[in-house]
Design brief:
Helices cover 73% and strands 2% of the residues. By secondary structure, the protein is mainly α. A two-stranded antiparallel ribbon has the order 1-2. A hairpin with a 2-residue loop joins strand 1 and strand 2.
Length: 454
C-alpha cells in the first residue's frame, strides 16, 4: 500500500609461543548450526562481539606499531646525529694532532735556536774574557789608541747583553710552546674520550634500534593476524546475515497467532510510545499482517504474481540505489527480492515498498540506524517482522502518534501514506481518506480485542 509519496630455532619457538598466547583459538559456528532466526541473531550478536574485540586489538596494536615506529625513527635520528658528532670529533682530533706536530716542530726549532745562541754567548764571553786579560803593553802595541780598545770591549759587552735578552725571549717562547703542546694534548685526550663515549652511544642506539625493529616486525605480524581474523569474522557475519535474510523473506517471520502479533506490537509500542493496536491496524492494512509483501520482482518466490516486473520497472529511479544498498547488505539478490506493485490496465502505476510495513527504500535508510540502535542487530531488515514493526512505530511516533490522542494518530496514519499529516488533494487522490479510516478502524478492532483480554 505504500505509494510514491512515502521515503626450529629458539627464536622460532619463541615466535610460535608468542602467537599461541596472543591469538587464542575462537569458535565459529557453521551455518548448519543456525536453524532459526533467534539462533541466527544470537550467533550474529556473538560475531559482532568478537569483531569488536578484534577491532579493539587492532586499534591497540596499531598504536603499538606507531609507538615503535616513532622509537625507531628517534633512534635512527640519534644514530645519525652521533655519526655526525663522531665525524666532527675525528676531524677535531686530526686537526689537534697536526697542531701538536707543528708545535713540536716549533719547539725543536726553538731548542736549536737556543742552543745556537748559547754557543754564540759562550764565544762572546770567551772573547770578552780574553780581551780583559790582555796586559797593558799588549793593548798599547795592538791597538792604535786606548780608546779603540775600550770601544771594542764595550761593543762586546753590549752584544753579550743583547744576546742574553734574545735568549731569554726564546726560552720564554719555548716554555710557551711546551705549555701550548700540553694544552693541545689535553684537548686531544678529552676528544678521544668523547669519541669513545659517542661511539659507545652509537653502538647502544644501534642495538636498541635493532631490538625495536624486531618488536615492530612481531607487532606487524600480530596486526596483520588481527586484520585477517577480523576479515574472517566479518565474512562469517555476512553469511549469518544472509541466512537471517533467507529466514525473514515474505511469510516466514510475521506471527500468525494474534497473541504473538500483539506481543510484537507491544514491544515496538513500549520503545516508541505508540499504541500496539495502532501499529497492528497499520501493518494489517499495509501487508495483511505480512502475508502480502510484494507481487513484483519476485522470481523464485513461493507466491509471485509478476516475476517479469523488476524493481526498476515498479519503483522510481530515485529509489534504485537505496534498494540495491539494502539488498546488498542483507546478502539478497536485488532482482528476486519481492517488492510491492500495483498494476492496473496492464500498466504499472506504483510500487517498490518492502516488507510487512511496506517501507520505500529511501525511507527505510532514514530509519535503519535508529532501528539498529534499539535492537542491537545490524543491518536492520525491512522483511524481518521485529524490524518492520519497530520501523512503523518509529515513523508513527515521529508524526505525533506517541501522544495516543486520536487527532495525532489520524495525522500520523495520514503521513504514513502521504508523507504529511494534512489530507491534501494529492493525498486524497492517492486514497488517503480511505486508507486512514481503514487503519483506524482496524486499530479499533485490535484495541477491543486487547481490552477483552485476547
Amino acid at each position: 500500500m505504500k505509494n510514491l509519496f512515502k521515503k626450529g630455532s629458539l627464536k622460532t619457538l619463541l615466535v610460535i609461543l608468542f602467537f599461541v598466547l596472543i591469538f587464542p583459538q575462537f569458535h565459529l559456528l557453521s551455518q548448519d548450526e543456525c536453524k532459526t532466526i533467534s539462533e541466527c541473531e544470537a550467533l550474529y550478536k556473538q560475531l559482532e562481539e568478537e569483531i569488536k574485540k578484534v577491532e579493539a586489538n587492532i586499534a591497540k596494536t596499531k598504536e603499538e606499531k606507531k609507538t615503535r615506529e616513532n622509537q625507531i625513527k628517534f633512534l635512527k635520528s640519534k644514530i645519525q646525529q652521533l655519526e655526525l658528532q663522531i665525524k666532527q670529533t675525528n676531524l677535531q682530533i686530526k686537526e689537534l694532532t697536526l697542531q701538536i706536530e707543528d708545535t713540536e716542530n716549533a719547539i725543536l726549532e726553538t731548542s736549536l735556536r737556543i742552543e745556537n745562541m748559547q754557543k754564540k754567548l759562550s764565544q762572546i764571553l770567551r772573547t770578552i774574557y780574553e780581551e780583559d786579560q790582555k796586559p797593558l803593553i799588549q793593548i798599547l802595541l795592538t791597538e792604535k789608541t786606548i780608546a779603540g780598545f775600550f770601544d771594542n770591549l764595550a761593543a762586546l759587552e753590549a752584544l753579550n747583553k743583547k744576546q742574553k735578552e734574545i735568549l731569554a725571549e726564546v726560552k720564554s717562547l719555548k716554555a710557551f710552546l711546551e705549555e701550548e703542546k700540553e694544552n693541545l694534548e689535553s684537548q686531544k685526550s678529552d676528544l678521544e674520550k668523547l669519541l669513545s663515549i659517542r661511539t659507545l652511544q652509537k653502538q647502544e642506539n644501534e642495538f636498541a634500534k635493532k631490538e625495536q625493529e624486531k618488536l615492530l616486525a612481531m607487532t606487524e605480524a600480530q596486526y596483520q593476524q588481527y586484520l585477517k581474523q577480523k576479515k574472517e569474522l566479518e565474512q562469517r557475519a555476512a553469511e549469518v546475515m544472509a541466512r537471517i535474510a533467507q529466514l525473514t523473506l515474505p511469510g516466514l517471520t510475521v506471527p500468525r497467532d494474534r497473541k504473538e502479533l500483539y506481543q510484537l506490537a507491544n514491544w515496538a509500542g513500549n520503545l516508541t510510545g505508540v499504541r500496539p493496536a495502532l501499529i497492528l491496524g497499520l501493518i494489517e492494512v499495509e501487508s495483511a499482517l505480512g502475508t502480502n509483501v510484494g507481487q513484483c520482482n519476485c522470481a523464485g518466490q513461493p507466491i509471485c504474481r509478476h516475476p517479469e516486473l523488476s524493481y526498476k520497472k515498479v519503483m522510481p529511479t530515485s529509489q534504485w540505489a537505496a534498494f540495491e544498498q539494502i539488498t546488498k547488505e542483507l546478502g539478497l539478490n536485488p532482482d528476486t527480492t519481492p517488492v510491492s506493485c500495483y498494476v492496473g490496465g496492464g500498466k504499472v502505476q506504483m510500487g517498490g515498498a518492502m516488507g510487512p510495513a511496506q517501507f520505500m527504500p529511501n525511507t527505510w535508510l532514514r530509519y535503519k540506524g535508529r532501528i539498529e540502535n534499539l535492537t542491537g542487530i545490524k543491518p536492520a531488515n525491512p522483511w524481518r517482522a521485529s524490524d518492520a514493526f519497530l520501523g512503523a512505530a518509529l515513523y508513527l511516533a515521529d508524526f505525533g502518534a506517541s501522544s495516543k490522542k486520536l487527532e495525532d494518530e489520524r495525522g500520523a496514519v495520514t503521513a504514513y501514506l502521504c508523507g504529511t499529516t494534512q489530507m491534501t488533494n494529492r493525498c486524497k487522490r492517492a486514497g488517503g481518506e480511505w486508507y486512514r479510516n481503514l487503519v483506524l478502524q482496524k486499530a479499533a478492532d485490535w484495541e477491543e480485542w486487547i481490552k477483552n483480554g485476547f
